Amino acid sequence: MTTKLLARCRKEGVTVTPAVISAVLSATASLVPVKDGQDTMMNIALSADARRRYVSPVPNHDMAYHASGIAPFGLHVSAAPKTPKDLWQLARIYAQHMNACVNAGQILANPLIAGKVLEKLMGSVKMAYIPTYFMSSWGVLPFVEQYGPWQLTAMTPCFNARRWPAPSTMVQTVNGVLTMTFIGACPVIPVSVLIALRDRCMDELQQMIVN
Questions:
Q1: 48, 120, 132, 149: which one has the fewest Cβ atoms less than 10 Å from its Cβ?
Q2: What is the pTM of this model?
Q3: Structural domain tally of the chain?
């Protein structure tokens, strides 16, 4: 699936991150209850890998946490993509947003305000400061298949979601395989919701590849 997704992303002129975000937004919209015809705005936040933005860039072998972020991206549930064509169109729109934010230097300015935002989260959790969804995309990680007598067969990234009442997805490629981890603070985000998000997101990506 990874090879086919990469090939289709190249054909559509986007990277993997916008494609996955398009699938995530579509999957999320399918799980958001809509009452009495009222629309809901979804906001997705993306963590950006800042290593290549330093002067001089930090090599990929540095496994420290070099993370920043860009402005959230909003989409109404009613505007969520419903066909593979719509999914790729949203991926291209998000790619434009992502590139504009990065080129504007937001991932360098973000740390200046992130501390203040985190201060607000240290007390009682305020939902107004929490996006609908959070995604962290790390690209190709510098692992190898063999470490002496030990073989790396899989990896599972994790982070402390205790005070993060929103579903999250971590995306990375290890040894040529795209890995996606769906995380949520149970029972705020029930396991059943995470499973549904995972399954629907995988279905959307599969549709994007074959159609």
A1: 149
A2: 0.84
A3: 1
Reading the chain (211 residues) residue by residue, the pLDDT tens digits are 889 999 999 999 999 999 999 999 999 999 988 787 788 899 998 886 777 777 787 776 665 667 778 888 999 999 999 999 999 999 999 999 999 988 888 877 776 666 666 666 666 666 666 778 888 888 777 788 888 999 888 777 777 777 677 888 888 888 888 889 898 888 888 899 999 999 999 999 999 999 8
Closest listed residue to residue 25, CA positions, set 167, 156, 141:
167
Closest residue by Cα to residue 179 from 171, 187, 189 = 171
Boundaries of domain holding 205: 2-138+190-210
Q: Which residues of 165-192 are buried (b: 16+ CB within 10 A; e: fewer)?
A: ebbbbbbbbbbeebbbbbbbbeeebeee
